[in-house]
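FAQ: What does the model actually see?

It sees only this:
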Amino acid sequence: MNHHATDAHTLVAAYALGALDDAERNDFEAHLRACEACQQEAAEFQATTARLAAAVAQPPPPAAKAQVMAALDGVRQLPPRIPTSAAPVLGGILRRRAVPLALAASVAAAALGGVAAWQTQNGNDLEQQARQAQQQLDEVSAVLAAPDARTVHGKAANGALTTVITSERQNRAVFTAANLPAPGSGKTYQLWLDHDGTMRPAGLIDHDGTVTLTGDPADAGAVGLTLEPAGGSPQPTTDPLLLMTLPA
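And it is asked to produce this:
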C-alpha cells in the first residue's frame, strides 16, 4: 500500500468491502489496530452494506436449488480473463480516488442482486421494491461519491452510533444509524435539520439503516434525532436524543 499515513483513512470503505489486495489489506490492518476512527468507520460501512442488502432481500422459491443445479450442465464456461500489466496501477488509482463510489456500487449490487434473480417469479411487488431500492441507492451513492463529501460521527443518548455524510455540491445529507433501539409501539424516530434554532422535519428512521435526509441541508447547522408518534410530527415533541453538528 504505497500511501502516506494520512491516506490510509481513505481505504476504510474498500477494506470493509474486501476490495483490497493481500498486501494492502495487511498494511491497512496494521493501521487499523492503532486508529479508533477507522475501526468505527469500517464497522459502520459493513453494517450499512448488510442493512441495505437485507432491506430488499427475498427468500428463494423452494424449487430454486434444484432448478439451478439442473441448469448447470447447459452453461457455457468462459475462458479466464488475463489482466493487462496496467490493471494493478489503474486499480490502485481508482481505489484511492473513488472509494466512496466503490462502496455505493457494492451496496447496490448486494441490495439489488437478489431482487433481480427472482423478479420474474414475484411480479410487480419485487419490481416496485427494486425501483424503490434503486432510487434510495442512487441518492446515497451520489452523496458518497461526491468529491466534497464530508463525514461526522456521533452517539445518541440511547446509545445508537450515528454517521452523517454531506455534500454541498449535491446539496444532500445521508444519515446512518447502528444499534438503534426499537422505538416502541406507536413511536418512530424522526430526523430534523436545525436552521438557526428552527427544527425542520428531515425524514423518519425506525430501525438501523441509512436514509437520505429530506429538506435543504445547505443552511442547516446540525442534524437532530427525536422519538415521535408514528408518522412523525411537524415539530419535535421530545428532547433530542442527538444534535450533531454538520460537517463543514
